[in-house]
């Protein structure tokens, strides 16, 4: 077992034995990797943290040396990997005392029982052995040390708060420094410990001393928590009924650490509205916070379920809720005045000077809540509602806490609380699918957990099968409060007719969200979006984009009739196709011949706006394509595939390009131009993804149609693809023939950009064949077309290819200028497809150190976009670069990876790699 100790003198222990890590600078490197355990640290950041501004002459070489020694020292204990332009230390973070400390503290904060929290805090603080990272010094470590000291201080204060709740105030008094009382949290703990120790006079005297010090030294008054504590001490002997109406804290509650912390900040002496759709866990959160903080409200806690969206009943009138509260405060029925106004006034009078918590659960609207707001400023009010209660926020100073879905880790914890860890570990795949189907919705998780707990002998996989087939049916525990349909129905019934129609139609939208313009095209009325957002049935994030929770969307779609669904989707699809075509006229203005014509859209005045729209709407456009394919709307799929083909290639969305074009292929018949065009595009996507045999078959079928029907545009594109395939696999004569015929077909079309592409391909082929002068001649012709149009995409490819040709001609300065400009153009044009090729092209002709950096960047990018041939090129380039440095181990790793890739692709370079590997031995 390995342990890394940083919370004191730096130590590494393996099974209790000290491991020698070497000199201080080498230990600095290890400390950086340990503090980022499991995450990649870029070389530049690693160097900055180790040396700061005092960098050695060659920091990378120094780091390579240190890391090599560290790998040797830690062999068999942990792994240090080179990844994505940096290094990552792979170890369980809990073997590092800093991470274990943070983990224990977070568990302590989330613990439901104080005794568990106290034990966790004790374990966390016991890890500290002195000054963190003692003996190591650097500007960065100083900042780290200060942050660790701050974390320790917060943990000590957190433990003190638990101790106070557990009656261990003597421990708090023994630990706190009475002179450190300008920190109000420390001051409040000190005063409360004195009070709990049976010394109220000392507590009041200490409060006064603190108040005077704050005024004299900071010019400030005590904060609300300290003033509240002072009031509690003063009124500790006051009599009268103290209501304790809070329902039990939910047993299955888990997570929500961030929201609980936000409530800690928002709730003292004020009103907070917790707003979300039904099933998100608003009541659970409110009651969990209320239970944890009940001791802060010595005058009692009031609770009412206002049933604003109850699936089985009507909302509670404010007058009924006020009378209930008055009774809890000791007012006899005969003393309750007539009329809501008088009752609310009496209620405000009785609460004006009290420290109380009031929970108003499931409120319908602001009108229902206002009479229940207490008098004075000493009470805290929590309101839960499916509406945002904008009136309460605007006119009564309430603050809002929006509740998102539970993240996966917290959702899993809900299941674990009910079903036990062993049952979850027995079926990890089923658990993952359950989490996906529940979508972080608290009620859905609670229903699934309840059903599984009721049948402990059933496999979770059986429940998953039901969720797949009838998701909303499966999320029904048999009673109204535990049925998602019933919960959603209550919100739906509260809408007026127009809003209800909008809700139904938005449930039909393919994809996870929809832009305002598309939603308006579908609904005909943009104001309805605000109505549904206020009702928490829609979420607007970021501004101008609207989404429904998956389960809410399922319910909404169930309510829509077939005729209104068909008409609404037609309006939506027409909007998307029109705007996508208009955006592509800006994105690729020189290729209108590749897509259906559309009228200009007033939304796109500049190219950047069109590009941004395409990036934002891509997921929705692809979802539309899938929906249209399933629904048999082949014309929509074909138009979308033709419209987006160039965008998807440039942005390197190869899998999406393949999926969309396959949809177009399936929706058209052989013998149609649209079918042959889709064949070629499927083949082109497969080239990028490295599936060369299938790519060739698709291109050949498309070419056969193009030649037979005189489709010159399609012929040129098919021959370009076939030429590339021949070239990669070393058939240079066949490649030259296809590229020449592609150029001839392009010239017959008269399309300038198509001719430029064909000339660029031919020029790059001549370079590969060793005819560098001929290469430059063709590339200059292509470059002139790129300038005349202008077209930055073609220009970037030409510049990158010319850089290689000029380097081969012995003109390195000219080559470097071309490569730099090609990279700039690829990044300016947000063209990762060009960028990865330009990086590898530049790496092939750059100096050794620059080549390694360029090929590393290419490898990261090629992996991200899935460009398999460029991955192989990057590995090959890195192998040669490290071989030139004399680093045979790194060279072998990359050359073996290159060989494996080239073999998969049946690429000609495989033989060259074999030779280098054989030389390595």
Please outline the helices and strands:
Layout: E1 2-5, E2 11-14, E3 17-18, H1 24-35, E4 41-42, H2 43-51, H3 59-73, E5 79-83, E6 86-90, H4 97-110, H5 114-126, H6 139-165, H7 169-175, H8 184-196, H9 200-218, H10 224-234, H11 257-266, E7 271-275, H12 282-293, E8 301-305, H13 318-328, H14 340-351, E9 357-363, H15 366-369, E10 380-385, H16 390-395, E11 399-402, H17 408-419, H18 421-426, H19 428-438, H20 442-454, H21 460-469, H22 471-474, H23 484-493, H24 497-506, E12 514-515, H25 516-523, H26 527-534, E13 539-540, E14 545-547, H27 550-559, H28 562-587, H29 607-630, H30 634-650, H31 654-666, H32 673-688, H33 692-709, H34 712-728, H35 732-749, H36 752-768, H37 772-788, H38 792-808, H39 812-828, H40 832-845, H41 848-865, H42 868-885, H43 888-905, H44 909-920
Commentary on this structure:
The protein is α/β, with parallel strands linked by helices and 921 residues long. The protein folds into 6 domains: 1-166, Arc Repressor Mutant, subunit A (Orthogonal Bundle), CATH 1.10.10; 257-402, Rossmann fold; 408-485; 495-560, Arc Repressor Mutant, subunit A (Orthogonal Bundle); 590-597 and 606-806, Tetratricopeptide repeat domain (Serine Threonine Protein Phosphatase 5, Tetratricopeptide repeat), CATH 1.25.40; 846-920, Tetratricopeptide repeat domain (Serine Threonine Protein Phosphatase 5, Tetratricopeptide repeat, Alpha Horseshoe). It has 44 helices and 14 strands. Strands 8-9-10-7-11 form a 5-stranded parallel beta sheet, with helices on both faces. It has a 3-stranded antiparallel beta sheet with strand order 1-2-3, with no helix packed on it. β13 (539-540) and β14 form a beta hairpin. α13 (318-328) packs parallel to α14 and α42 (868-885) packs antiparallel against α43.
């Amino acid at each position: 077992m390995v342990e890394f100790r940083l919370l004191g003198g730096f130590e590494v222990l393996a099974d209790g034995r000290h491991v020698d890590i070497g000199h201080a600078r080498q230990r600095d490197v290890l400390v950086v990797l340990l503090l980022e355990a499991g995450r990649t640290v870029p070389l530049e950041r690693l160097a900055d943290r180790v040396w700061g501004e005092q960098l050695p002459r060659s920091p990378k070489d120094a780091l390579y040396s240190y890391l090599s020694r560290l790998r040797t020292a830690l062999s068999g204990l942990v792994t240090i990997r080179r990844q994505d332009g940096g290094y990552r230390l792979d170890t369980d973070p809990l073997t590092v005392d800093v991470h274990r400390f943070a983990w224990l503290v977070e568990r302590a904060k989330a613990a439901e029982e104080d005794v568990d929290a106290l034990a966790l805090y004790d374990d966390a603080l016991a890890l500290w052995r002195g000054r963190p990272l003692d003996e190591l010094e650097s500007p960065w470590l100083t900042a780290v040390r200060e942050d660790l000291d701050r974390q320790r201080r917060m943990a000590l204060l957190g433990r003190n708060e638990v101790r106070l709740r557990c009656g261990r105030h003597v421990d708090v008094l023994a630990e706190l420094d009475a002179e450190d009382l300008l920190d109000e949290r420390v001051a409040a703990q000190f005063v409360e410990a004195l009070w709990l120790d049976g010394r109220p006079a000392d507590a009041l005297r200490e409060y006064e001393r603190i108040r005077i010090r704050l005024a004299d030294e900071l010019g400030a008054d005590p904060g609300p928590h300290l003033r509240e504590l002072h009031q509690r001490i003063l009124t500790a002997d006051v009599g009268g009924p103290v209501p304790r109406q809070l329902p039990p804290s939910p047993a299955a509650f888990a997570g929500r650490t961030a929201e609980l912390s936000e409530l800690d900040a928002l709730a003292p002496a004020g009103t907070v509205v917790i707003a979300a759709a039904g099933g998100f866990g608003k009541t659970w959160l409110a009651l969990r916070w209320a239970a944890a903080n009940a001791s802060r409200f010595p005058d009692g806690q009031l609770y009412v379920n206002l049933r604003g969206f109850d699936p089985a009943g009507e909302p509670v009138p404010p007058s009924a809720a006020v009378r209930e509260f008055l009774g809890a405060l000791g007012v006899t029925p005969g003393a309750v005045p007539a009329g809501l106004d008088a009752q609310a006034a009496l209620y405000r009078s009785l609460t004006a000077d009290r420290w109380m918590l009031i929970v108003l659960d499931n409120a319908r609207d602001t009108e229902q809540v206002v009479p229940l707001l207490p008098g004075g400023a000493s009470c805290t009010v929590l309101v839960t509602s499916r509406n945002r209660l904008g009136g309460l926020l605007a006119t009564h100073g309430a603050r809002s806490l929006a509740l998102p879905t539970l993240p996966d880790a917290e959702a899993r914890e809900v299941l674990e609380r009910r079903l036990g860890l062993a049952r979850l570990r027995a079926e990890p795949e089923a658990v993952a699918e359950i989490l996906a189907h529940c979508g972080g919705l608290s009620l859905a998780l609670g229903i699934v957990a309840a059903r599984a707990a009721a049948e402990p002998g059933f496999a979770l996989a059986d429940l998953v099968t039901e969720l797949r087939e009838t998701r909303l049916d499966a999320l029904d525990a048999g009673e109204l409060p535990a049925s998602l349909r019933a919960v959603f129905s209550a919100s739906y019934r509260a809408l007026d007719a127009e809003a209800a129609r909008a809700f139904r139609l938005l449930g039909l939208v393919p994809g996870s969200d929809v832009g305002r313009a598309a939603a308006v095209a579908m609904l005909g009325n943009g104001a309805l979006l605000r109505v549904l957002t206020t009702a928490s049935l829609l979420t607007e994030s970021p501004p101008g984009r609207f989404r429904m929770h998956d389960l809410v969307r399922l319910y909404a779609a169930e309510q829509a009739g077939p005729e209104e669904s068909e008409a609404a989707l037609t309006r939506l699809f027409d909007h998307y196709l029109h705007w996508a075509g208009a955006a592509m006229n800006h994105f690729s203005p020189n290729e209108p011949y590749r897509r259906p014509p559309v009228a200009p859209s007033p939304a796109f005045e500049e190219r950047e706006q069109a590009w941004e729209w395409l990036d934002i709407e891509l997921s929705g456009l692809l979802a539309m394509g899938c929906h249209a394919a399933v629904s048999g709307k082949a014309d929509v799929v074909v138009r979308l595939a033709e419209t987006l083909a160039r965008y998807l290639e440039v942005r390197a969305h190869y899998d999406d390009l393949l999926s969309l074009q396959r949809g177009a292929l399936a929706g058209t018949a052989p013998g149609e131009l649209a079918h042959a065009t889709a064949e070629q595009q499927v083949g082109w996507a497969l080239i990028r993804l490295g599936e060369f045999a299938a790519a060739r078959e698709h291109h050949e079928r498309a070419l056969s149609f193009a030649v037979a029907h005189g489709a010159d545009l399609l012929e040129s594109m098919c021959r370009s693809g076939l030429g590339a395939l021949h070239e990669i696999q070393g058939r240079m004569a066949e490649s030259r023939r296809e590229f020449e015929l592609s150029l001839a077909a392009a010239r017959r079309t008269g399309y300038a950009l198509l001719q430029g592409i064909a000339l660029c391909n031919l020029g790059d082929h001549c370079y590969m064949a060793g005819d560098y002068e001929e290469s430059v001649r063709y590339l200059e012709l292509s470059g002139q077309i790129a300038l005349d149009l202008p077209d930055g995409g073609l220009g970037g490819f030409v510049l990158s290819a010319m850089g290689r040709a000029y380097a081969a001609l012995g003109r390195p300065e000219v080559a470097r200028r071309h490569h730099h400009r090609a990279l700039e153009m690829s990044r300016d044009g947000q063209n990762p497809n060009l960028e990865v090729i330009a990086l590898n092209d530049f790496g092939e002709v750059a100096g050794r150190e620059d080549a390694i950096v360029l090929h590393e960047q290419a490898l990261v990018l090629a992996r991200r976009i899935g460009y398999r041939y460029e991955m192989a090129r990057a590995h090959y380039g890195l192998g040669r670069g490290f071989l030139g440095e004399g680093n045979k181990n790194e060279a072998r790793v990359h050359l073996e990876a290159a060989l494996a890739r080239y073999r998969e692709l049946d690429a000609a370079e495989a033989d060259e790699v074999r030779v280098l590997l054989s030389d390595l031995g």
